[in-house]
UniProtKB/TrEMBL annotation:
Any Pfam family hit: Aldedh
Descriptive protein name: aldehyde dehydrogenase (NAD(+))
Gene3D superfamilies cross-referenced by the UniProt entry: Aldehyde Dehydrogenase, Chain A, domain 1, Aldehyde Dehydrogenase, Chain A, domain 2
Family, per entry: Belongs to the aldehyde dehydrogenase family.
Residues annotated as domain Aldehyde dehydrogenase: 18-486
The UniProt record lists the keyword Cell division: no
Subunit-level organization: Homotetramer.
Amino acid sequence: MTRQIVSVVGGKAAEDANATTYDSVNPARTAETVARVQLAGDAAFAWACSVAAAAQREWARVPAPVRGRVIASIGRLVEANAEALARLVTEEIGKPYAEALGEVREIVDTCDFFLGEGRRMYGQTVPSEMPDKNLFTFRVPVGVAAVITAGNFPVAVPSWYLVPALLCGNAVVWKPAEYASASAHALYRLFAAAGLPDGVLNVVFADGASTYAGLDLALAEGTVQKVGFTGSTAVGREIGQLCGRYLQSPCLELGGKNPMVVMPDADLDLAVEGALFSGFGTAGQRCTSLGTVLVHRSVHDEFVGRYARAVREATVGDPAGDVLYGPMLDHRFAERYEDYLGWIQPHHTVVTGPTGRITGENPRGGFDGEGGLYYHPVVVDGVRSRDRLFLEETFGPIVGVTSFGSLDEAIELANRPGYGLSSSIYTTDPKAAFRFRAGIGAGMVSVNNSTSGAEAHLPFGGNGKSGNGSRQSGIWVLDQFTRWQAMNWDYSGRLQKAQMDVAEIIPDLEFRL
């Protein structure tokens, strides 16, 4: 039976007889509808923000250690329901089950990290320049966070926002991707079961245009104090401009064109394994997916030969099985990926064989699937630094290969596209690893590891076209969901004016031995 899903605001289903509907289909078997979703309009989104604003005031009064216990309960609930949630993710977006299970584990890890942060919401006691006066700093919640997430990581990435935002005493209005609505609704139910008061977490299903318009209304009404967005660079720019009009700084986690540098001394088997996972895991539909492999000329031919062979031998197909990757997330991504394939030029060499959708007329050996949005993995050699395939994000199973002659050249090439999310270098030379780290503009650097992969206690985020420098995960995300408040307490019984009524000790600066 197809699931019927509606927004939940203030703890109640927000039915709307005039709402449009969206069918979330199984991309591995597109004839199957996973959920029929009622999409809210802009006024409904703004209304949800006002409901959250009313609930937030009471939630902020709950002591932070108690809020931490709620986060602990969320972690245990997700852990107990891990298999069911992972199966739903696989069904709805076609992510291989092993990857989906790892994604659910990321939620548990995030909760395990933050459950103790409620007892470490530290401020500072600061010495004053005047007697009988104390200075303090406090972390205070921002208020209401409007969180808009993509569907390639439909439960893990939202948890990076929801868990710290709620822990810090904020209320949240969450807008998931339409094509991952069933997974999002399931995650909401797990959060709600942990005992969150009504209105503290709200989930609104809407399309992009209604979300943007509703966010504009809420910002104008003053019911949103923080915006978190994970998605494309193009939409991130629009969100950033909108927030700027209201003097807000959003948390933007955007696209990537992530480079992997393979040095002459690299372990090529390890580099191939890393390039295979980061280039084609989740069918290349991660913000941290490998964009271009930069290979030293001395090992270029050997690396490309091994990489092409590994890709050709990998199993693509039914995400319920043991496969490298399954289908594209949704029809829109399949259509966009076909545009990216049009960027392949005559001076390029496709070293992996067929391109395009896997069909009976365009088959793939070892293919295990049918009736879905399955595409051939593609490795393109001979990519030049001015090519569109080199400069722009390609959200799908396609990886470019470019040669270099020196580490300085590799760093220059790695930075040229202007993204700055993730990066990787394969080398056995510590000097090369640290030179690469110092020169790369990415927010994240891996040495002898892939461009994909995050841990709950390490900052995640990018620069340039990949984001505005904000960071998720670990203690660093607390700066997104709290504001610093300064307090001074003067118990001298008189008005002491800073920088004016300060005791002066006069040195003898002419003194010499």
